[in-house]
Design goal:
By secondary structure, the protein is mostly helical. It has five helices and four strands. A two-stranded antiparallel ribbon has the order 1-4.
Length: 168
């Protein structure tokens, strides 16, 4: 990676990714998962704050960021995660709900498995307020949020690099 791309914005994005990896690696330790999800929410939301700060002083980059910020404000998923960040930082702890249900007719690698199993899912509460019909699946929603941020950071790095090259 060249020096132009070594930014605190990118580090913040990587911090968010690390928290999700830790949560996924923790399998069934709900305390670790809960802690990692709260950390992910904080780090992920900070990506755009840091991006805004790192854009300041570069008029073209500031303008690009403000335009993107307006687009992002309309995204229900981002609104949800901002609401969860405010709650997590200022009011309490985001504690995903554990839901278990029987699983029938389980097939692994095309082979029918005997008996039944149990499927356990972690869900965010209050998702319907932002996204009608969402299952609230914690890992799916975090992944979707991360992909949006990753694409945004990639675009920002390209814009930043163009600006820095034009300045040189």
């Amino acid at each position: 990676m060249n020096k132009a791309n070594q930014t605190e914005t990118l580090m913040k994005l990587r911090d968010a990714a690390t928290q999700m990896k830790l949560a996924l690696d923790s399998k069934s330790d709900i305390e670790v998962i809960r802690s990692c999800v709260n950390s992910f929410i904080s780090h992920a939301r900070s990506v755009t704050f840091v991006m805004q700060r790192e854009s300041s002083g570069y008029p073209e980059l500031e303008e690009w960021y403000l335009q993107k910020q307006e687009e992002l404000k309309t995204n229900p998923l981002l609104k949800f995660f901002n609401d969860r960040r405010v709650y997590s930082i200022h009011k309490g702890v985001v504690a995903p709900t554990i839901r278990s249900t029987p699983a029938y007719n389980i097939t692994v690698n095309g082979i029918q498995q005997p008996g039944t199993g149990t499927m356990t899912v972690l869900q965010f509460e209050g998702v319907d307020k932002f996204i009608q019909g969402s299952s609230g699946n914690v890992f799916r929603m975090c992944e979707e949020y991360f992909v949006i941020l990753k694409q945004l950071v990639h675009q920002w790095l390209l814009e930043r690099q163009k600006y820095l090259q034009n300045k040189a």
